[in-house]
Amino acid sequence: GQSPGEIINRFEEDADGVTDPIAFSMGMSGQAVSAITALGVMLRINPLIALCAFLPMTGIAMTTRWMGEGIQRCYRTEREAASRVSGFLGELLGSVQTVKVAGTEVSATRHFEALSEIRRRAVLNNLIFSQVLNSANTTTINLATGVLLLLAGHFMSIGAFTLGDFALFVSYVALGEASISRFAGGVGRLLASFKK
User: Fold this and answer.
1) Residue 161, pLDDT score
2) In whole angstroms, what is the distance from residue 179 CA to residue 172 CA?
3) 196: helix, coil or strand?
């Protein structure tokens, strides 16, 4: 069976597993409406710039989906390492007297330190993986903004695009909670969560 520490750790994660998808899907539905509306407005103003700015956003979703297996593996490894630490700590605290009588304090401490080191590495790997993914997403957003700048400059020079149009496009693509890039990242995370 599982130790009390492992059960507590699992109980906390199971509760998050029930509530997180509900909150995520509610947020995603609002972001979907905002992204579709933004894309519609952008297409009416300048279809070429809208499509060129939107294409990198599909890159965010595809990159996140492609990295889905790694995301799942890092998260699973971190969760298992945390469960082992919690489980051992629960067992250790439940048998302090036995450990003292047997004189195994040093070996118990070493084992706890070894488990903690494994957990530290798992947390670090998960953090690095997440940061690489976030960096790739941020780079993609910057790429889309760069494409906007280049195309907007050209269309502004011929009078087919205004500064207000440019500001609107940048805000729709890269800024705020309801931006297309945020929605694309959410879609990618959703796709990655289904990938096993």
Assistant:
1) 92
2) 5
3) coil
